[in-house]
Amino acid sequence: MLSLLYQEGPSTEGIFRRSGSAKICKELKEKLDSGAEVDLACESIFVTASLFKDFLRNIPGSILSSQLCDKWVSVMDQGNNEERIKSIQRLIEQLPRANVVLLRYIFGVLHGIEMRSEENQMNAFNLAICIAPSLLWPPVSSTPDVESEFTKKISSLVQFLTENCCRIFGEEINSLFGEI
């Protein structure tokens, strides 16, 4: 999935903004959940993007860990960018290894898409609006006003992560997918 998004996402206008066919997504999700082989290259890239966001939303406790939710939310309230980057790196160290590996690939994809935002209309802000709700959610439900404020803060965090991913995850993030 990520490989396809890395390949096709940068040249696709509105990637992560436009949804794939709900019927096709449901059918493919059922096949994937049953362990069947699925060739996503034959599907619309919007279907792949929708499936990927669904996958992220179904990670128990979220990929960024709902247990660390308050700490993630407070990162953007810190002083300068250097302090924010150091705080993010400390939080990443607290995540399970599998989450960290997946995050590196996710932000490798987002960075690649952002680098061609003039073509695809998906700058870091737009990507964050679309993907942030799939990366972290509060451990308990709350009022719509509180959830709206939370979404804004997490979107701001994801935008910052995307814009600074090379400094946060290392320059090798640019070569994670090799020569595809």
From TrEMBL:
Under Gene Ontology molecular function, one entry of this record is: GTPase activator activity
Annotated GO biological processes are: regulation of Rho protein signal transduction; signal transduction
InterPro entries attached here? ARHGAP20-like_RhoGAP (IPR047886), Rho_GTPase_activation_prot (IPR008936), RhoGAP_dom (IPR000198)
Q: Which SMART domains match?
A: RhoGAP
| Pfam families, alphabetized | RhoGAP
Q: What PROSITE patterns does this protein's entry cite?
A: RHOGAP (PS50238)
- Residue intervals passing through the bilayer: none
Identify the keywords attached in UniProt to this record, alphabetized: GTPase activation, Phosphoprotein
Q: Identify the residues that the record assigns to the Rho-GAP domain, covering every copy.
A: 1-169
Gene3D superfamilies xref list:
Rho GTPase activation protein
What name does UniProt use for this protein? RHG20 protein
State the organism of origin: Turnix velox (Little buttonquail)
Its taxonomic placement starts with: Eukaryota, Metazoa, Chordata, Craniata, Vertebrata
What would be the name of the gene that encodes this protein?
Arhgap20_0
